[in-house]
Amino acid sequence: MGMFRLNLRKIAAGVFCAALSQSVVSAAEPNVSDILAFKPKQAGVPVDVPTAAALSTCKVELVTGKALPGGKQETGWALKDGNGRLLRKFMDTAGDGKVHIWSYYIGGVEAYREIDTNGNGIADQYRWLGPNGSKWGVDKDENGTIDTWIVISPEEVSQEVLAATAAKDSRRLQALLITDEEMNELGLPANEIARIKAKRDKVGEQFNKTTAKLVKLTPEGTVWVHLEVKNPQTTLAEDLGSKVDLIRYQRGTVLYQDGDPKNGKTGFLQTGEMIQVGRAWRLVEAPVDGLAAEPIGPIAGSSTDEQIQVPEKAKDIIEKALKPLDEKAPSFGASANEIARYNASRGAIIEQIVAVIDEKDTPAEYKARRDIWVKQIADCYAAAAQVGHEESLKRLGQWRTVIAKNAPGSSLAGYVTFREMTAEYSMKLMALTAPGANPKPEVAQKIQEEWLKKLAAFVSEYPTADDTPDALMQMAMANEFAGKEADAKANYKAIVTNFGKSRLAAKAKGAIDRIESEGKEFELAGNTLGAGTPFDIKNIRGKGKPIVVYYWASWNGQNAAKDFSKLASVINPAQVELVCVNLDNVQADAIEFLKTNKVGGTHLFAPGGLDSSPFAERYGIMVVPTMILLDADGKVVNRHLQTAILEEELKKLAEKK
User: Fold this and answer.
1) Distance from the first to the final alpha carbon of the chain
2) DSSP percent split of the chain into helix, strand, coil, nearest 5
3) What is the pLDDT of residues 484-506, one digit of tens each?
């Protein structure tokens, strides 16, 4: 980049005074090619680049920021495309004539930023923003490589793990490992620190083994597809003896594709244990190739964390049957028949594995080995049954009968029972909506009543099962949709009271708040979609305008598009505030949807989707779309508003003024 240096010294605060001459500005102004000569230092960062044909429509503009001490001011250059959307913006944030922030954009939204924090003209921090994610890395020695992470999600950790493995780059993996300082920051007790260090000390050796086994993987030909994790596990500070609660994943499973687009094969990589430190997830172990059995034994606070090994007699079954089947797993959008065939076949193969588990193990070891694989069988047959495969439902029922007989009331019996009843309910709902079906209302009502009875029976028979909070949540939702709000609140309260550590507790509490919200001030605070600008509804209430809060997701596209059209036609921004809360799992999906489905207002986003986004949890949002109407003081007027009556409801509020 030696051919061009941004001369911000000439556009410091003095340049913006009235006496500024045009010739000075022209002398300092870079052209479009000068700006585009700068590219992200981190590899593989998607940013908008104008086509050759569009270059002539791009323009460079002088921009100013906030005033600085000593009469200085933030200044910089912005590159915009022919539609006025930002492509690049390079800013002097200290008024010293140097660039301190290099910003790159996608669709006019900042997607990547490089930051010079010490004023020497070299970036030492890198942030992925907007549609590119949430990573925030630090380059301590300013050599262009990330040394540690301030912010990184589990998904992004898994992407870095795969990239490090494909590149055989131990340094890249090292940047993800938890440090001694971070363990002290968490205030972990000595035995827990010793457990983590014992794992961490083996990272180099294990990483070499994994990369040697996956020697054919290359950075260019390896594509991250998906991260599969179970619920994070929390150990309370008071139980562990730490400063803060310890939140961890025992491991994540990365699904990736390697090779060229035509002949590529899918593969699996285990991340090992991950621990949350502030806003970053940190690794404890090196990655391991392939699928792994579920871990058992103690978690945080123990000196050991054993992994159940694959039964010796089952290894041949896994290599010759299970692994080839998983390599051909249906992709997103596959037909119901493909999904059913895959899951039914997988369940049958795992049944063979269960059959060869050695009963000579101690009772505890045998039970643990068997239970892990049986749960996978239940998951497979349930997944097949939920798309209409009756034989899988029948087979699932046979497993439930045997386990309930041999281990009544056990955790495993509850696990299989819940999946059978859920799959059966799904099949009945599918029949109601099948092409040509025209069921009478009483048929649907009967199915719903039977479902509620089964849920109640499950909660009674398995009061402490892992799935009991889910059963209570299903009961609560069914009761709420049926208008039985008192019963729904009782179900939600049972989750909060009896399963306070459950992932559903926060959402259940939020649902109670929503049911009781009418006449109360509505709380809504977070960051805007794309830009990440802080927002608080407190700042727009009390200004004489009612507020419509609309929860939506792009995967419910048909409804969202229809509602957006209605909102745009009914809401006059001069008279009504509109706040749209997106509950997509991936922010980029929402941004892409809004390109073709325009609606005004403020748009908010937070990771977690409908299941665990803080926006979904705060008021227990169970379905999208959900729309809530607030008066000008920000108090809830209607908590289950429909677009069909929106105009009428707004008129009522206007008449009350």
Assistant:
1) 62
2) 45, 20, 35
3) 999 999 999 999 999 988 888 99
Q: Is residue 146 helix, strand or coil?
A: coil
**Helices and strands: H and E segment counts in the chain:** 23, 23
Query: How many Cβ atoms are within 10 Å of 326's Cβ, its own excluded?
Result: 18
Q: Pairing between strand 602-605 and 577-582?
A: parallel
Q: What span, in angstroms and rounded, lies between the C-alpha atoms of 203 and 647?
A: 62
Question: What confidence tens digit (pLDDT) does each residue in 149-205 have?
Answer: 999 999 999 999 999 999 999 999 999 999 999 998 899 998 899 999 999 999 999
Considering only CA atoms, which of 596, 594, 622 is closest in space to residue 609? 622
Q: From CA 15, how far away is CA 22, in angstroms rounded?
A: 10
Segment 295-310 shows an average pLDDT of 38
pLDDT tens-digit readout, 239-289:
888 888 999 998 888 888 775 544 556 788 999 999 999 999 999 999 998
Tokens of 490: 């009782």
Looking at residue 198, the DSSP 8-state letter turns out to be H
Using DSSP, state whether 88 is helix, strand or coil.
strand
- Predicted confidence at residue 259, as pLDDT, reads 58
What whole-number distance in Å separates Cα of residue 273 and Cα of residue 197?
12
Contacts of 169 (CB under 8 A, 6+ apart): 163
Alpha helix stretches (DSSP H) within 91-189: 154-167, 170-174, 180-186
- Give per-residue burial for 343-375: e unless 16+ CB within 10 Å, then b: bbbbbbbbbbbbeebeeeeeeeeebbbbbbbbb
Cβ atoms 189, 301 nearer than 8 A: yes
Is residue 445 classed as helix, strand or coil in its secondary structure?
helix
Pick from 312, 280, 11: which is nearest to 151 by CA?
280
Helix intervals (H) in 356-410: 363-385, 390-406
Helices (H), 538-619: 557-570, 587-596, 609-612, 614-618
Q: Does domain 517-656 have CATH number 3.40.50.720?
A: no
Please, which pLDDT band fits residue 226 given cuts at 50, 70 and 90? Answer: confident
Give domain limits for the chain. Answer: 8-150, 152-307, 517-656
Could you say which DSSP state residue 530 is in?
Answer: T
The residue with greater pLDDT, 303 or 30, is: 30
Residues 50/79, Cβ–Cβ less than 8 Å: no
Question: Alpha-carbon distance 449 to 541, whole Å?
Answer: 42
Write out pLDDT tens, residues 91-132.
999 888 889 999 999 988 999 999 999 888 899 999 999 888
Peptide bond into 546 cis (omega under 30): no
Q: d(Cα 657, Cα 635) in Å, to the nearest integer?
A: 14
Q: Write the DSSP assignment of 300-335 as a string of letters.
A: TT-S---BPPPPGGGHHHIIIIIHHHHHTPPPTT--
Query: Is-contact 123 114, C-beta < 8 A?
Result: yes
Instruction: Report how far Cα 14 is from the mean position of its chain's Cα atoms.
Output: 46
